[in-house]
Each structure stands twice: as C-alpha cells, then as structure tokens.
Design a protein that fits this description.
Blueprint (H helix, E strand, L loop, with lengths): L8 E6 L4 E3 L6 E3 H9 L9 E4 L8 E3 L17 H11 L3 H15 L5 H5 L14 E2 L5 E2 L8 E2 L18 E2 L2 E5 L6 H17 L3 E2 L8 E2 L5 H16 L8 E6 L6 H13 L3 E5 H4 L5 H14 L6 E2 H4 L11 E9 L10 E8 L8 E8 L11 E5 L3 E5 L1 H13 L5 E7 L6 H19 L7 E7 L27 E3 L9 E6 L11 E8 L5 H11 L14 H13 L29 E2 L2 E2 L8 H4 L6
Parallel strand pairs: 9-11, 10-12, 10-13, 13-14, 16-21, 21-22
Antiparallel strand pairs: 1-4, 2-3, 4-5, 6-23, 7-8, 7-15, 16-17, 17-18, 19-20, 22-25, 23-24, 24-25, 26-27
Helix pairs in contact: 5-9, 6-7, 11-12
InterPro entries: ArgoL2, Argonaute_Mid_dom, PAZ_dom, PAZ_dom_sf, Piwi, Piwi_ago-like, RNaseH-like_sf, RNaseH_sf
Keywords: RNA-mediated gene silencing
GO biological process, one term: regulatory ncRNA-mediated gene silencing
Length: 617
C-alpha cells in the first residue's frame, strides 16, 4: 500500500525551482533531478508548486502528479453556496420519510438485543414517544390605516403585503445608485431602481422617485474609491441644502466574492450610510414584484421605519410587556469555521428601541477571544486620562439608547441568548447576568430592573411529528407540524422551565423546533405567558411576511454577528468571523482581547446613524 501523507500546504516556488540538501556537506539536489534519478520518473508539470508534507525545519516536497487524494475524507472548512445547496438536496427529507427512516434504523439496530443495554437494564422502545402538544393561535398584525387592509390574521405562519401598507413607512428623500455589474447598462439600472422606488411608495414609504445622481457603472476592484467618490458627489449636491444621503442602492454581479462585504464595511463603518445590495439576476427578472416587495421591507427598517406591529402591543394587552416599559435583548456569539485557529469570535447584542411596539432593534457587535462563548463586552470599565473611570459596554449603550428613544429607562428586561450548549448554561448565566446588573447600576446605583434570561437552542436533534400525516388539520402544506406547536412536558426537564416551540411553517425538509430554556426569571412569567410572547414575536420579523423559527431578537443578533465578519480589514477578511465595534470612546489605550498569542484587532466603530437602525437586515 502506498504511504499516506498529511498536506500542510503548497510551496511558494514552482517544482523546477525547488532543491534540498542531501548530505551534511551542503550538497543540494533539485526535486526534478531527485525523482528522475531515484524513481526514473520525469516530472511533466514543473511550473506547478509542490505539496508540502513536512515542516519548516524539515521540508518534504511531493510533486502533485505523483499523488492521489485519499477518498472519503471529511471536509471541515466552510462550504460555498453551490456545495451547501447540493448538500441540502441530499439531506432534506419530508417529515413522513424522516419518521420512517428513524423507525427503520431503530428496528435494524435491535437495541433490545444489545448485551450492554441488557446488562444495565436499559430498554429502548421501537416506537416514537407520544407527547401532548398544543397549537398557539397566531397574533393579529397591524398595518397602516391608509391601506385597504388595516390588519391581518396570518394563516399557517404566512401572509402577504397585498392591499396593505407598512405601519410606519420610513422616509427616503435622497438616494443614489452605483452599479458594479458589467452586464447591467446604466439604463437598465435606472429602470430597476425606478421600479424599486415605486414598490417602496406602494408599500407605504415616503420615497422620492428621482435619485440625487443617475446610476453609473464602477469597477469592482476599485470599490472603495467608487463608493467614496459617489458619496462625495451626492454630498456636494445635498450638503449646501443641509441634507444627507439616506440610502445607497448597489447592484452587484451574481458571483461577487468579497465585494458585498467590502460595500457593507465601507458604507457602515466609514461613510455612515445604509445600503441595499441587489444581484444582477434580479435586475433582469421578468416577474420581480415579489422580490421588490421583499426588498422594500428591508429598506424600510434600514431607514428607521416599521413594517408591522402586534395589535395586542398597540392595545397594551401583552402580559409582562405592555404594563411597564420593557426592553427585549437578543444576543449571540458566532465562532470561526473549523481550521481557522487564530480568528476571533464575534459577539452581537440587539435591543428593542420602541415600547410598547417592541419591533425596532438597535445592534452592536464586538470581537473577542477565539471560541470564547461568554460575551466579554456586555459591560466594561476603563481608565480615561481626562475623564477618569469610565463605564461602557453593549448593554449599557443599548439601555441608554432605549432611554433616549422612549424617554424612560426600561423597568423590565427580557434577554434571549442564542448559541449556548447545556454544559455552559450556568457559566453563561452567572457571567452575563452579572454584566447586565453592573450595566444597570452604572446608570443609577439603585437601578435594578427584574431580568428574565432565556437561552434559545436550534442545534439539537429533537423532531416532532404529527400523529397522522394525512390530517390536514394537524400539518401544514409541507407535512410538518403547524406553526405555534408547543411542547412543555415529557421530553422537557422535569423541574426546570423549558419548552419546545415550532413557530414557523415548514418550507422543505422536516421542521426543527426551537428549544427555549428559562435560566433566570425575576419577572415571574407563567409558561403560557412566555410561550405566547415568544410565539407572537416570531411574527414580527422584519425581512419577510412569514413567522420565523426563532425569536426575532436572537435572529437579529445572529445577522448582526454575521454582518460584522465583513468589518475586518481586507487582508484578513477571508479568515472567518472577526469584528469589533472598536475601542470605547476615550478608551483607545485599552488592551485588545487576546486570541491565543494573537491580539484581536479593534475595528472601525459603526457610525452613530447606522447603529440606530436595523442596518443588519
């Protein structure tokens, strides 16, 4: 059998340029010469690099043409979009087929005959466990009174914007377009933008149809110069009038590589500008009304509007939210992909900025040590040469933002935390609850609003199936359980406060319910109260007219953390998850968080006008 090697990399030189010592006297031999003399093999592709299978101290070179990749190896790095699509097609199973596969696997494994199971007295039923469940009703959603339909009751987790207008349409009085796609002519770009502007108007926004500048083409490799130049040209017109550029529409090639990330990084951390990116394929799409309607939803929240709110929120009928000023947080930490050993993790926190509506969420991001799950930047104190001891951190900043937006401090805190495994529950709770307490006390010494701390989990293997797959009253169109299905007994913890909630309608495959664990509850929620609140919030997600699978603040935190990857400097932007809001004001002398022996580089802060809106949507 041929020998196996682990490849550590490629040589920077071509094969014909490589040589190595063959004795202690310093005699060297080329790789080409060595293979010819030793094996009688003449290397054909001498301009290609060699595989490096040694180390820096003892290099070992292998020409590619003499090697064969061992089959069946697991690829642990990030997949591209095409690979992900192909993988989903293979693994995607309808509920009925998945249930059948599970039962067949249990039957063939014959656990009842396993000697080890028998020795320990373990018996495994070959039937699925039967659990009691109930289906929570969908909430009624409010839209603007000027539309033909002023409110809507979603059906099976979805609805549409037909005959409806956004409940609070944002204002876009000045906008521009820049086109990075060679396949889109200026006229086509102008027509597309006009259609989009019309859709924004129809949907309820105050959107001026004419741009400040006509769309123009720019070369993708000059993205920074193009964006800054376009912005400056617009401000030369708007500045003397005391106006700002409200929105930049960006047309991208379908395969744009890092261009999307560059646009977001430059706009949000340098120019202080919200942008909406659109792919070339959508510009030329014949029937694009649905696409334009979805883009309009995103633009509206990016410029400070609201798409819809809960009728019960406006009527002050949501228990333990509507009675006193309540802020709802969402938090998540995303980690770098396997193999990226020096990349930092990204923490993101969002918080509602409106009450009683609880639909607008401001967001902040921060870099921290590699694979560190505890959010380090929730609250911090540092020394400033001029101001002395200064308090800061994401919780404090978002509390102050809520205070300014509503005119009052929140009197209740609900904190949804995503991405925590059961083994880390109480470590995360102790550290992050303490940070929340300190952030509150930093505003006023006796300010300690009650906190409810809820962990949201989607990475589990629990699946729920209807008893009868053919009962249309028990399943949706995809064969999955109905949105609003909640289970809080038998498969849940016997003493702790947790529940499974499937808040969304399945599209493909088998729906995975979210698992909510209440780790701390000073607001004394009932199970019904928290389950209903969580389910209702899932209908307020801004980017679509569907209920979503996890509570929106946790979803938004995930989006913000993902967006923060693009804030890295270009030379490290392909290394995975890394971002930061930069050092706190006056805190530029604070030490950077460590990632092993590598410091986490502080990155540009989000501009103030960007932080106030849902830029990550």
């Amino acid at each position: 059998m041929r020998r196996k090697y682990r490849i550590s990399g490629l040589t920077p030189q071509a094969t014909r340029e490589l040589s190595f010592p063959i004795d202690d006297r310093g005699t060297v031999k080329t790789v080409v010469q060595y293979f010819l003399e030793t094996y009688g093999f003449s290397i054909q592709h001498t301009t290609l690099p060699c595989l490096q299978v040694g180390n820096q101290q003892r290099p070992n070179y292998l020409p590619m043409e003499v090697c064969k990749i061992v089959e069946g190896q697991r690829y642990s790095k990030r997949l591209n979009d095409k690979q992900i699509t192909a993988l989903l097609k293979v693994t995607c199973q309808r509920p009925q087929a998945r249930e059948k596969d599970i039962l067949e696997t249990v039957y063939h494994n014959a656990y009842s005959k396993d000697p080890y199971a028998q020795e320990f007295g373990i018996t495994i039923d070959e039937r699925l466990a039967s659990v009691e469940a109930r289906v929570l009703p969908p909430p009624r959603l409010k839209y603007h009174d000027s539309g033909r339909e002023r409110d809507v009751l979603p059906k099976i987790g979805q609805w549409n914007m037909m005959n409806k207008k956004m409940v609070n349409g944002g204002r876009v009085s000045s906008w521009a377009c820049i086109n990075f796609s060679r396949n889109v002519q200026d006229g086509a770009a102008g027509s597309f933008c006009h259609e989009l502007a019309l859709m924004c108007q129809v949907s309820g926004m105050d959107f001026v149809l004419e741009p400040v500048l006509s769309p123009c083409y720019a070369r993708p490799e000059l993205v920074e110069r193009a964006l800054k130049g376009r912005y400056q040209d617009a401000m030369n017109i708007l500045g003397p009038q005391g106006r700002e550029l409200d929105l930049l529409i960006v047309i991208l090639p379908d395969n744009n590589g890092s261009l999307y990330g560059d646009v977001k990084r430059i706009c949000e951390t340098n120019l202080g500008l919200v942008s909406q990116c659109c792919l070339t394929k959508h510009v030329f799409k014949v029937n694009k009304q649905q696409y334009l309607a979805n883009v309009a939803l995103k633009i509206n929240v990016k410029v400070g509007g609201r798409n819809t709110v809960l009728v019960d929120a406006l009527a002050r009928r949501i228990p333990l939210v509507s009675d006193i000023a309540t802020i709802i947080f969402g938090a998540d930490v995303t980690h770098p992909h396997p193999g990226e050993d020096s990349s930092p993790s990204i923490a993101a926190v969002v918080a509602s900025q409106d009450w009683p509506e609880v639909t607008k969420y401001a967001g902040l991001v921060s870099a921290q040590a590699h694979r560190q799950e505890l959010i380090q930047d929730l609250f911090k104190v540092w020394q400033d040469p001029e101001r002395g001891t200064v308090s800061g951190g994401m919780i404090r900043e978002l509390l102050i933002s809520f205070w300014r937006a509503t005119g009052q401090k929140p009197k209740r805190i609900i904190f949804y935390r995503d991405g925590v495994s059961e083994g880390q529950f109480y470590q995360v709770l102790l550290y992050e609850l303490d940070a929340i307490r300190k952030a509150c006390a930093s505003l006023e010494s006796d300010y300690q609003p009650p906190v409810t701390f809820v962990v949201v989990q989607k990475r589990h293997h629990t699946r729920l199936f209807a008893n009868n797959h053919n009962d249309n009253r028990a399943v949706d169109k995809s064969g999955n359980i109905l949105p609003g299905t909640v289970v809080d007994s038998k498969i849940c913890h016997p003493t702790e406060f947790d529940f499974y909630l499937c808040s969304h309608a399945g599209i493909q495959g088998t729906s995975r319910p979210a698992h909510y664990h209440v780790l701390w509850d000073e607001n004394n929620f009932t199970a019904d109260g928290l389950q209903t609140l969580t389910n209702n919030l899932c209908y307020t997600y801004a980017r679509c007219t569907r209920s979503v699978s996890i509570v929106p603040p946790a979803y938004y935190a995930h989006l913000a953390a993902f967006r923060a990857r693009f804030y890295m400097e270009p030379d490290t932007s392909d290394s995975g998850s890394m971002a930061s809001r930069g050092p706190p004001p006056g805190g530029r002398n604070t030490k950077a968080a460590g990632v092993g022996n590598v410091a986490v580089r502080p990155l540009p802060a989000l501009k103030e006008n960007v932080k106030r809106v849902m830029f990550y949507c």
